Amino acid sequence: MTRPSKRRPDELRPVTLERNVARYAEGSCLVSFGNTKVLCTASLEERGPPWLRGSGRGWVTAEYSMLPRATHERTRREVTSGKPSGRTQEIQRLIGRSLRAVTNLPALGERQVTIDCDVIQADGGTRTASITGAWIALRDCFAWMQARSIISVDPLRDHVAAVSCGIHQGSPVLDLDYAEDSAAETDANFVMTGSGGIVEVQGTAEGKPFSQEELLAMLALAKGGIADLVALQKAAIAP
């Protein structure tokens, strides 16, 4: 089996994590997974959502959108339809859950951090790239808050990153680009922490159902890929 990109089955696309790309945001990261590029920004609000008022803990949430020419043909802006699509809502909830899984919310106080993930260019794996870059933006937002004595401790408990896996031409492969994603028999997304904990697994058989052995093979690929992504996160934030 030869992948369209000529990569090995366990090989990520070239990944870059560029920090401090948005001048006014408390934290920001431009993340690239190959030709997929997402701008992630973190914005601090000095109040939490109304339903958490008086609880003593904060909140981390996310919004996701795709620019009209992020794809081969122009897609209509969702704002013109009056509401986000079901896909958009599902992805932004996934990003929020992933970040909250590694955040000590009481340490944040009654504040909210909103992560905006805007897809500049899409070539598969936009949600996994968003989660990986969003962690950088959130981490830098928390560092900004600590530097100004807004919070006394870092609320982050661990790294979190995400990667896609799939069954392509009968073989498990890591980090699908669009050419593979559009033709894969199985498509899955794995969100994991730096210590190896599983936050979420999304898996769908596009053709025939996949086996337990194939699921475990994809999980093994994902663990290796996320370990590499966490190493890149650590390198990106190193002094």
TrEMBL record:
Q: Which UniProt keywords apply?
A: Nucleotidyltransferase, RNA-binding, rRNA processing, Transferase, tRNA processing, tRNA-binding
Could you tell me the Gene Ontology terms of the biological process aspect for this record? Answer: rRNA 3'-end processing; rRNA catabolic process; tRNA processing
What is the catalytic activity of this protein?
Answer: tRNA(n+1) + phosphate = tRNA(n) + a ribonucleoside 5'-diphosphate
Ranges in coiled-coil conformation: none
Molecular function (GO) terms for this protein are: 3'-5'-RNA exonuclease activity; tRNA binding; tRNA nucleotidyltransferase activity
Q: Which NCBIfam families match?
A: RNasePH (TIGR01966)
Q: What is this protein called?
A: Ribonuclease PH
> In the UniProt record, what gene is named as encoding this protein?
rph
